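Same chain as my last thread, 388 residues:
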Amino acid sequence: MYSQNVITFVDVCLAVTSHLGANPIRYSHRTNLFYTSKYARVLSKVSPILIFANQVFALFRISHYFFVPLEHSDVYLVNITYLMMIICIIAVICFYLLLADPPEFVHTLNQTLQYARYLEGRWVSKEKCEAHPSGEMLEWFLYVVAVIAGGSGFICSVLSYLIEPNPGLWITLISKKHWTPLLYWTYLSYYAYLMVAAGLCIGVAVGLTTAYLAFMIPLHSTEFNLNLPHGRDYITIESFRTITRFPLAYRSYEILHRRAVPVLSPALIPLQSLIYNFSLFCNWMLLTHRDAMGVLRLAMLSGEVCMITFWMGVLQIGGKFYADSLRNIESWKKMHGANKFFRKWRKSIKPLCISHEGYYSIKRLKVLKFGKGIINGTFNTLITYNNL
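reply #2:
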């Protein structure tokens, strides 16, 4: 399952980001467990507080642009400020995910890691462990995430030096003739740190969430399906799917999933709302102010495509997970030697899904509903601002 290279790389990344105040979680090679400390939690709260305060300030500075017709010279400033706000809001969501309940997050990670090691030691051969998505494939994905997260923080820091400050930055409150070298480098250092912390926090949240999903989703879609399609193979040995062992194995998986979902799901609603509103803003700007945007047209279009593609991928994975759960339960009717107890147990099982219980759940049609919502929302926005 999780290779030693993955564990070592995660350990290094968590150590570096924790010292920089970008996450409160560490990994100990002595105990082979994740942990958190009070100092790390306090240090990690500094960045999101500063980022959130800066976003409130930026929103206040550009809010009047939404109630008056945009001048040609205002389009660039509004778009740059809005793009920076979107990046920072994503970082705040990731900080919230890691800081809302760090002990619970750590306990979920440890349970997942111990469950993976249990399966690897008893039910899965070494060769099949290496071929599992949580092995080498996850390792390379984490390398890519680390490069992007670290590089984005550095690039944003350089851009803050090269690009004229936008209205969302506090230094614009001071007249340019009063800018001293000390003031300017204080401003650059302040925003460079926030951009680096934001990029690293997003990278940590994406990496840990992906590591969990890379283990749990393939296990769910394959090992608990007793009617596996031709061409797909189990990674666990045959005795894993016997009538005496199978119910206990599935209950263990179900408990772990239901424990992890409340920890990870608080990000679902804010992320979908953010991506939805960002898409509407991009569509509105591209359709009504494209001549005044210049090179920002490419940035806005690329950002919208990337975010929509990412979220549709999330919805597709969640929808497939729910469909696999229904398919698994149906396949249990073919359990060899099923007795009265097993049949009652099968009827007691509820399908698993990725959801924020009571508010939001991902089913197969969520992708279509999300796409339809963007199209309808774009037309409604154009009508609201009298652009149609």
